[in-house]
Design a protein that fits this description.
39% helix; 6 strands; single chain; 19% strand; Molybdenum Cofactor Biosythetic Enzyme, Chain A; alpha/beta; 175 residues; globular
Length: 175
């Protein structure tokens, strides 16, 4: 039996240069493992804040059969923050409601700078791509806000059926 695949793409100049350890990618994996009752295989990538490299990694993860790719980093207003632009250029459809929900959750959690975040989501082939912030604590706040819709979105794309752990997160699928 082939396990469903999930991609995790960390976008960070400093982590790729070894200035600091990538804590965001592992934070995404930990959150997804906590949410999902379905066993999955995780494909991880680390790239600098360069549009062509981000685009290539997203295309590669989609081509590798990832049902979901979560990116982390590069969603702020700084000049090197280019993840949303790179993602949008490779997506066939954008899902701006994801970014709206994540910003609302962050604001509700008392993060006034959440309005500076440019997170979004989109579809690359049959892969759902969700941009998350780079701060590990913010990743969980944002994933808590949007994860209930992720398995159903993957269903609609013809992807694998992902079951959540009801004691951790309530996955929503219309009846």
């Amino acid at each position: 039996m082939t396990l469903p695949k999930i991609g995790i793409l960390t976008v960070s100049d400093r982590a790729t240069q070894g200035v600091y350890e990538d804590l965001s990618g592992p934070a995404i994996e930990a959150a997804l493992r906590a949410y999902l009752a379905t066993e999955c295989a995780y494909e991880k990538r680390l790239v600098p804040d360069e549009v062509p490299l981000i685009q290539s990694a997203l295309r590669d993860l989609a081509a590798a059969g990832c049902a979901l790719v979560c990116t982390t980093g590069g969603t702020g207003p700084a000049l090197r923050d280019v993840t949303p632009e790179a993602m949008e250029a490779v997506c066939q459809k954008m899902l701006p409601g994801f970014g709206e929900a994540m910003r609302a959750a962050s604001l509700a959690a008392g993060v006034p700078t959440a309005i500076l975040s440019r997170q979004s989501a989109g579809i690359v082939a049959r892969t759902l791509v969700v941009n998350l912030p780079g701060k590990p604590a913010s990743i969980r706040v944002c994933l808590d806000a949007v994860f209930p819709a992720i398995p159903y979105c993957i269903d609609l794309l013809g992807g694998p059926y992902l079951e959540g752990r009801p004691e951790v997160v309530k996955v929503f699928r219309p009846k």
